[in-house]
């Protein structure tokens, strides 16, 4: 089985997160971002600040694009906690 990319502290962020039913290489690269987004949501951080700091987009200059980027990545971060983590566990189990 090919090895997945490692999570990155400063990954390239796309305008939309994947909507696949399975884990993608992009998801693996963004694991740290997803966790940080979930932490920010739990701390009730403003989505605009999260967009600026984590998703590298200025919501003042590009409000629609920033909101779409935030919404799709937050949805994917939540998906990771509900289903995506299972894919990680299955792949780790197969690697052993």
Q: Distance between the terminal alpha carbons, to the nearest Å?
A: 11 Å
**Could you tell me the mean pLDDT?**
93
| Number of discrete helical segments | 4
Structurally, the number of domains stands at: 1
- The level of helicity is 55-70%
**Main beta sheet strand tally, sense and closure:** none
Instruction: Please provide the ordered H/E string of secondary-structure elements.
Output: HHHH
What best-fitting shape do the alpha-carbon axes yield?
Answer: elongated
Rounded to an integer in angstroms, the radius of gyration calculated over CA atoms is 14 Å
Strand content: under 5%
What can be said about this structure in brief?
It contains four helices and no strands.
Describe the structure.
The protein is mainly α and 96 residues long. The protein has one domain (25-95). The chain contains four helices and no strands. Helix 2 (31-42) crosses helix 4 (63-95) and helix 3 (47-53) packs across helix 4 (63-95). The longest helix has 33 residues, at 63-95.
């Amino acid at each position: 089985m090919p090895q997945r990319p490692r999570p990155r502290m400063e990954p390239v962020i796309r305008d939309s997160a994947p909507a696949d039913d399975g884990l993608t290489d992009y998801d693996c690269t963004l694991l740290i971002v997803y966790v940080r987004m979930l932490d920010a949501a739990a701390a009730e951080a403003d989505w605009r600040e999260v967009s600026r700091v984590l998703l590298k987009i200025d919501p003042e200059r590009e409000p629609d694009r920033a909101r779409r980027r935030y919404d799709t990545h937050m949805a994917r971060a939540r998906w990771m906690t509900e289903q995506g983590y299972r894919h990680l566990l299955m792949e780790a189990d197969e690697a052993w």
